[in-house]
Amino acid sequence: MALKSTLRSIIYQTEKQTQRIRFASAPTPQNDWPILLGISFPKSGTHLLDQILLGFANVAPFAKRVHSFYAEYEGESGHKRTPEQALNWLDSLRPRDVASAHLFARPEAVERVCSPKFAPYFIFRDPRDVVVSHVFYVTDMEARHVHHEYYQSLPDFNARLNVSILGRSDTGIEFPNIADRFAPYLGWLDHHEVLTIHFEDLIHDRSATLTRIMDHLLTRAPLQTSRQLILNSLETSINPTKSPTFRSGKTGEWKKYFTDEHKKIFKEVAGDLLVKLGYEKDREW
């Protein structure tokens, strides 16, 4: 494992140096090239955002692969990482890196991310679609997930969806309800330095959304490349077959799976969250 990690690091740094040579004529921005950081709420388009940010490597000296991925919880054990681990990970990143994270908006993390060192993006998705996607992921797609065996032990999809909405209190592994799971990310919405992206906009209004993603970087690192070429690079970098969130390629899939009971319990625990995120105007849905 250590050898594989070392080889991966050598390949990554070699590719970065190659990129630097390839774009040697590009003027370095005033505050150096930023770190492209894709922050995502789980099951909200993490891989899709990664692909788009890597598209910048075709027009600027950014890395051609993701440097590393950070998550606040360890997938196989479910253990919660410490705030210091998140800060150490952020501090390990260097200019021109492309990185991805399920990262809480703690004050210390916000201070680092909302600085000239980073060009940060935050993607999220209708939480109702998130819980449906979560059921499929934990039950069928990730056998090593800490809750996999438990989900498979439940009698049917409806029971699993209840758990994805309400969380679990019958275990020592932290897994709160969907609103409480989202709460630590809400702070990213309050900082103009972070571009917020609705996953749905990348499906239904992709051109305008990619333009926003491009312009967010251009405010930090002006590129001597035509806007159309940049947009084309971002568009062609998208590969739905490598993005688990594109399981169906649709939005609003929750309507197929939510029973009246699911709607009731979701409104009880996360009705206000839907309004705050702009997915509903009130609880009458």
What's the layout of helices and strands?
Elements: H1 2-22, E1 35-40, H2 46-54, E2 69-71, H3 83-92, E3 98-102, H4 107-113, E4 118-124, H5 127-141, H6 148-153, H7 157-166, H8 178-182, E5 195-198, H9 199-204, H10 206-218, H11 227-236, H12 254-257, H13 260-276
Parallel strand pairs: 1-3, 1-4, 2-3, 4-5
Explain what this protein looks like in three dimensions.
The chain is of the alpha/beta class and 285 residues long. The protein has a single domain (31-276), classed as Rossmann fold, CATH 3.40.50.300. It has 13 helices and 5 strands. The chain has helices at 2-22, 46-54, 83-92, 107-113, 127-141, 148-153, 157-166, 178-182, 199-204, 206-218, 227-236, 254-257, 260-276, and strands spanning 35-40, 69-71, 98-102, 118-124, 195-198. Strands 2-3-1-4-5 form a 5-stranded parallel beta sheet. Helix 3 links the parallel strand 2 and strand 3. The longest helix is centred in the N-terminal third of the chain and has 21 residues, at 2-22. The radius of gyration is 19 Å and the shape is globular. The termini are far apart.
